[in-house]
Structures are given as C-alpha cells and as structure tokens.
Amino acid sequence: MDLENEELEEKRNVSQLALAITIVGALIFVSIVKWLWPDSIPFGLFELWATKGSFALWIRATWPIFAWAVIPTIFAVWLHRDAVTRGGEIERLARGLKVSMRAGLLEETLFRWLMFMSQIALYQLSNWIFFGWLGFGLVEWLYLHLEAPIVNFFTFGLMHSYLYTPKGWAVGAAMIFTTNKFREGHEYQGCLGSINSWYLGLFFFYLTFNFGLPVAIVAHAVYDALIFITQAIVCSACKNVADREAAEFA
C-alpha cells in the first residue's frame, strides 16, 4: 500500500504542475476574451471569487462530501489492512496534506473558473461556426437535446437549474466539459474513482455558483485532507490490532 500511495502522489505532483502551467495560459486567454468581447462570458473576470452565505450554510452544504471522504476510506483501508506497511505515517500524512492544499487551490482555480470561463466563449464560437450564423447552431442543439438531458438524468434532476441556466446554454455546456476534464484527470484512481470525481466536480460547481469559488477551494482541500487523515488513523489502528494478535499467539 505504501508503494501504491507513493506512485499516486507522484502522479498527483506531475498533474498539479501541469495544472499550474495551464492556469497561467487560461488566465491570459480569458482576460483577452473579456477585453475584446466582454459579453461573450456572462460572468465578470473575478465574479466567481466573491463569497456568499454564512459559515453555517457552507458547513451545511459541504458536510455530505466530508462524510463521503471518511466512511468509504475506512472500509477501503480496513479491507486492505494486510498490505499496510509499518513506519512513516507522519511523513505520508504531511505529504498528503500538502497535496490536498495544492489540489484544492489549483484544480478549483482551473476547472471551476478559468477553463470553465474559457469554454463558455469557445462553445459559442464553435456553435457560430457550425451553422449558428444561419440561425441553427448545431452545438447548441446537441447540448440542449442530447447532452444536457443525459446529465440531468444521471444527476437526478438536481443540476437542472445549472444545466438550463438563464445565463445561457453555453454555461451549462462549459460546466459539463470541464467536469469531464476533471474526471479524466483522476482516471488513475480507477473506474469508481473516475465516477466519484465526476460527481464531485459537479458538486464543486454547485458550491461555486451558490457560495463562491473560495468555498469550493476549501471544500476540495478538506475533502482530500480527510482522506489522508482517515488513512493514517485507520492504518495505525490496523497495526495496533495486528500487534495485539501477534502478542496473543506468541
């Protein structure tokens, strides 16, 4: 398990370096688009950074994913307790917390802000190219009649108001695109991890739209940190149980 965690950490570090580079490019692109065509993106450049609501509302909205971070991790570590290695728990936890903070800041900044806003403009451009100039945009039609209904079904209608927002169809399309990219960035976690990341990506959009991007950043960082903290606690418990069992049969 220790070797597996180190490999995952290395992949995260490489991914986060690429994210940092992409963020710079995306910020330049969005800034230029907002300067030349300000109405193409129905958000101010830093509008999503404004926080809304109280701390109590933030906790009420985010506690389900915090519970989701802890409970499955307990069972996952316990099921693989025979592979738990001894020593280095503090170092692994420290590295994990550092990765969590970087992931929360970099991934949310890119996926819920800059890539999202970039795609709003790009979707409108591609829609104009594919017959939008004739009054029938193929990209818009495919989104409204195929993509949005499918996502609405798999989210049980909970994202309906965001998929069909008054701000325009391109906002919903950009949200889905960036969520899919967020999921692709977590494919190393396997099939279940990819599915989990897709739903989490949409949930972080919900937090961004309702409470502001800083809330999504903190929630993402805390979610990841809780996984590492839970792993450390359960691994320690597994070792203590193994030591007691070994002592009993000694």
Describe the 3D structure.
The protein has 250 residues and is mainly α. The protein has one domain (2-39, 51-248). Helices cover 78% and strands 0% of the residues. The chain has eight helices and no strands. The protein has helices at residues 2-36, 55-79, 89-129, 138-154, 160-163, 169-184, 190-211, 213-248. Helix 6 (169-184) runs antiparallel to helix 7. The model has no long low-confidence stretch (mean pLDDT 88).
Helix-strand topology string: HHHHHHHH
Query: pLDDT average, as an integer?
Result: 88
* Gyration radius, rounded: 21 Å
Individual helix count: 8
User: Span from first to last CA?
Assistant: 26 Å
Strand content: under 5%
Give short descriptive properties of this protein.
0% strand; single chain; mainly alpha; 250 residues; 78% helix
Briefly, what is this?
With 250 residues, the chain is mostly helical. The protein is 78% helix and 0% strand.
How are the SSEs ordered, and which strands pair?
Elements: H1 2-36, H2 55-79, H3 89-129, H4 138-154, H5 160-163, H6 169-184, H7 190-211, H8 213-248
Helix pairs in contact: 1-3, 2-8, 3-6, 3-8, 4-6, 6-7, 7-8
